[in-house]
Amino acid sequence: MAKEMSKTQIDRLGDRLRKGNISEDDLRLLDQYRRSFTEAYEFVVGAIRKELALEPTGRPAKSTTSISDKLRRESIRLTQIQDIAGCRLIVGDMAEQDSVVQSLKGLFEHTTVIDRRERPSHGYRAVHVVVTHLGKLIEIQVRTSLQHLWAELSEKYSDVVDPAIKYGGGSKDAQELLEKASKLVNSEESNERGLTEILILSSTKDNLSDDLKRQIEEVQGVQDSTRQATLNLLRKLIERV
After folding, report:
1. What domain range includes position 46?
2. Pair (39, 14) in one structural domain
3. 44: in domain
4. Which CATH number belongs to the domain containing residue 61 in this structure?
5. Measured between alpha carbons, how far is residue 2 from residues 35, 67, 78, 113, 191 in Å?
6. Count of structural domains, the chain
7. Contact 41, 130 (CB under 8 A)
């Protein structure tokens, strides 16, 4: 078995990758480092399946090209990259998203939560739970179905039109479309959260009038319709890219 590299050795490797000064030996070292995440990744995914009865999708190791690109794009050390290995959970709405995040925090001993819903990254909204296990960082992306479709739209533009789009570059038209779609997702989910809070409060009241109950049901029906319309719109945008 190959000897585990020290943190200093890993970060020096990252410096060479960032500069583009890559040898065959460096590529072998990077591959060794990528593969060193497998055990921690399998532990995290296995725990989610067994304890939470959820089925994550994921990858045990980021590609060497993606790692090198990230080092060049961001001011970050190789040992600080949180998504060398990671998985993803897609949930229905923000209420379920909050619940799953809390469950993940309770399931794993060492976690860091990064909430990108109110402060998105180039329009990207989600909650990331980063688990530290065996000294390795494993990222769990928790997305709602709307957030996931937006991310797929961004990925499609990046793959088909321009890779820079995913990180705030590319054409102005593409960026405006993604920004408006992201704001639409946020508006829809903010309304859903507000309605959920009203439903929770109203469920504790025994003396609601029939008229008020009817109005709440009507609002819920409208909300369900607008959510479906937003889902359909995002799917059609993805198809058209």
Report:
1. 7-145
2. yes
3. yes
4. 3.30.460.10
5. 11, 21, 19, 32, 53
6. 2
7. no
Q: How far apart are CA 45 and CA 140, in angstroms?
A: 9
Q: Give a yes or no: residue 1 inside a domain.
A: no
Burial of 103 per CB tally in 10 Å (0-12, 13-18, 19+):
middle
pLDDT (tens digit, 0 to 9) for every residue of the chain, 241 residues total? 457 889 999 999 999 999 887 899 999 999 999 999 999 999 999 999 999 999 999 988 888 888 989 999 998 999 999 999 999 999 999 999 999 999 999 999 999 999 999 899 999 999 999 999 999 999 999 999 999 999 999 999 999 999 999 888 989 999 999 999 999 999 999 999 998 888 887 776 667 788 888 888 898 899 999 999 999 999 999 999 9
Q: Say whether both 92 and 169 belong to one domain.
A: no
**Of the residues 89, 119, 145, the one at which a domain ends:** 145
Do 68 and 129 fall within a single domain? yes
Which of 108, 124, 145 delimits the end of a domain?
145
**pTM score of the predicted model:** 0.91
- What does the alpha-carbon distance between residue 195 and residue 190 come to, in Å, rounded to a whole number? 9
2 located within any domain: no
CB atoms within 10 A of CB 49: 12
Would you state the structure tokens that stand for residue 47, as one six-digit string? Answer: 């725990």
In sequence order, what are the residues at sequence separation of 6 or more whose Cβ sits closer than 8 angstroms to the Cβ of residue 32? 2, 5
